Amino acid sequence: MDKTKVAATKNITSLSQETRVFPPSKEFSKRAHIRSMSEYRKLYNESIKSPEKFWAKQAKNEVVWFAPWKKVLQWKAPHAKWFVGGKLNVSYNCLDKHLNTPTANKAALIWEGEPASPGRAGEERVFTYKQLHREVCLFANVLKRNGIKKGDRIIIYLPMIPEAAIAMLACTRIGAIHSVVFGGFSAQSVADRVFDCQAKMVITSDGGFRRGSIVPLKKNVDEALAIKDAQGVSLTKTIEKVIVVRRANNDIHIEEGRDVWWHRELEYVNANCPAEKMDSEAPLFILYTSGSTGKPKGILHTTGGYLLGAKMTSKYVFDLQETDVYWCTADIGWVTGHSYVVYGPLANGATSLMYEGAPNFPEPDRFWRIIEKYGVTILYTAPTAIRAFMKWGVEWPKKHNLTSLRLLGSVGEPINPEAWIWYHEVIGGKRCPIVDTWWQTETGGIMISPLPGATPTKPGTATLPFFGIVPEVVDDQGKAVPKNCGGKLVIRKPWPNMLRGIWGDPKRFVETYWSEVKGSYFTGDGCRQDKDGYFWIVGRIDDVLNVAGHRIGTAEVESAMVSNLKVAEAAAVGRPDELKGQALVVFVTLKTGVQASQSLREELRNHVGKEIGAVAKPDDIRFAEALPKTRSGKIMRRLLKQIASGIEIKGDTTTLEDLSVLAKLSSSDE
Ligand code: WT7
Q: Whose CA is nearest to atom 6 of ligand 1?
């Protein structure tokens, strides 16, 4: 059988073939918010037929407004304004709203610190909604005391500690715009971001714990604030104050007049801080996303639409119920941490768990220990983490009682069916639905995902669109392609939590997202819809290879590769090839105990050939101890491409998690 289908145009060849279907169990559906496909379809159709009526109703039910909006949507493509004229406050919706309800004394945040000895749990801090409200009010007054006004930009550069969430919420309380910079980023990245958004303040900590060592965050900030441009002008001269949380107790420098301790500042303020009445379209946060090339883009999200999107997707996709203990493992430095550690869960009055450190510290069972300790019911993590757990072996999860889990989620990249099945069986005990959620920093919230009580799932697909979302797979002319043909994924209609722009760069906003396909939002992802209308993401368009005239998604080759039992992880890249245009090179890490050899290389080539067809047989397989990844777990294909082509590594490597991986890769070619 020919598994290869090629669209009429130069589109993407989608080769994956996965036929297993997992319908939700009756018990799950019975108590879910959305209980059947007909219920989903009815609401979805309403949301598409009369979007403004649908969103108005949702915004009224889900969000507390200080003043009503005058117009639901003002759409002058590509500029959307939602709930025009409405007034609200995000921290009010996440905190104050729950205060005179039984939720007030429920845990809002459960935090576990990283340091722990083998076999033991770590430090623990729990904040009820009432307590969290108080902390946020106190700190909001600290911000004011230090000169922060509505509209000012604040860089948050913190580890995964409760103060990170408190700082974010405090910003939203007084209308300051936060830009969280992931704690793994360098001094230069901090400086670039300060400069780009002209921030007035940095909130950081002395240090943060990561795999047992201390990351010197404050030292990085000091370095960042000393960086000058070519003319000798300070890049960061807009910074007036630095607030420092004491976390790791490492020695730091305090610059008199500029740096203040968080805990000291608290002594000067009270907990009375009314929430600012913010315009629905007031900027809420800027989050920088690197993309594979070029300068990071400051993605801008605004208040009303973002909150509604985060709240509704959390409620329906994670099926949040009163008694859930919900854990999203993402760092708050990523959009997933914004929408699904902080804003979405808290707006719903849920209990959100936050863990400071690495999944394998002090041992590879840390996640499972945490799940058992707190009775976590919902786990939301990334395929790269799941593959790491697979590699470390089932003995680690098997040591713990994971029966509290009732729902699993995945985000960040396509999840290969092998990882999906492992997640389902080993972690979910075959009883938990898996929601594979497709979205982006730019989309603000989940766009394509199963609803766990309704949607039959298939390993490897994010399935169907959320309410109000109109995705389509199109060809180079922007025309919809037939089912089962590959193409570009676009979104046809505006949605409430879509990005509003790139900070300071309106031209790039239009060029990047609105020029590829006229009138539609271009996601940058390649995709195929199957006969049931399910969306299969095949990876970024930039990652699509053109091997002898076939455009092949790297994700599919990788997925085929890791379906071999000896393989732990794989990354496919192209290398210029005179004959084929591009030759396919796959970097492979093997499961613990498996030996690399020439015969294994042959076996794996044939395996991929068998799985997805001869066109996708790798020209070259390179065994590696580890793959170069960003701290968010995305494989840095740009670097692998350079290695595969035998050229020197150029460009930015500051986002790389482990630099030594590169050196090993370059020399690993036996
Ligand atoms: C890109 C967005 C979404 C928040 C975290 C990453 C890829 C994300 C999936 C998924 C297939 C996925 C896409 C997307 N991606 N989730 N479930 N299935 N691909 O946010 O850094 O903005 O990255 O991640 O390529 O465009 P981001």
A: 412
